[in-house]
Amino acid sequence: MIEITLGSALIYYFASHALDIKKKPADAVYYTEVLDPRNNSLSRYHREEVRIKPALENQFRGIVRQAYDYSCGSAALTTLLNGYVGTKLTEQQTMEGLLRFGEYDRIVQRRSFSLLDMKRFVTALGYESGGFKGEFSDLIKQQQPVIVPISYAGFKHFVVYKAYKDGRVYVADPALGNISFDQERFKKIWENNTLFLINVPEEQRKDLLALQDADMRHVDDATIHRYALVDAQFSTDYINKLADKASTMRKVIDRDPNSNTYGQPITSFMRLYYKR
């Protein structure tokens, strides 16, 4: 019995040290593609590691998320200060600064911060800032992120305007993340056409709030209304139905000599098989 136990231990030791097993990253999945999806074959010709991350991480990219129901002002200001000015503040530090340099009694009374409170705190940090009223054209001419008040879903709210492109306004919302509005919709919810900007030397400006490709992945309302309740049609075979639903379509030349479309381009399903 002792010999068997000792032998097993030695085999495990040499096997574990002989094989160089790399630790798989926690955010990695692996997929393979079937050689020909039209045939029942397990032949594989491609395997690749794909890194994934939670959608919420990208949704709040560059944004300081508000910690309290009525702290959108402090979160929006912290987002602007960190993402454009280059500070490294937490929302709690910004709130303490707003309470210290702002109108303390009025802040407590209304349970929120004003643009005047923001201006006083930003001045204490050594930067020029101010609140202004203007037209939509004035907003997009700024070419810099600014805080704008909006009236949305029955609430008054502060967000950070990021950019305007192709009829859409992109904002950093401390409650909802990186979102966008149709231009006309934004004009309706923009409260009093007010904006708050901070003057920062060009060499100091940060681009954490710059528009990225991920921000522009939106679906217009007309498409949602048209296709929201449409059921996609798949093969009656259950397995193929699931596989086709998760596959990518591509054009290939039909190489099956018994097929009616032999030698012609046909639509084929590239099925991906995921494995952790």
UniProtKB/TrEMBL annotation:
Residues 66-197 form the Peptidase C39 domain. This is Peptidase C39 family protein. Coiled coil: none annotated. GO terms for cellular component: membrane. One of its GO terms (biological process) is proteolysis. It comes from Acinetobacter stercoris. InterPro entries: Peptidase_C39 (IPR005074). It comes from the Bacteria.
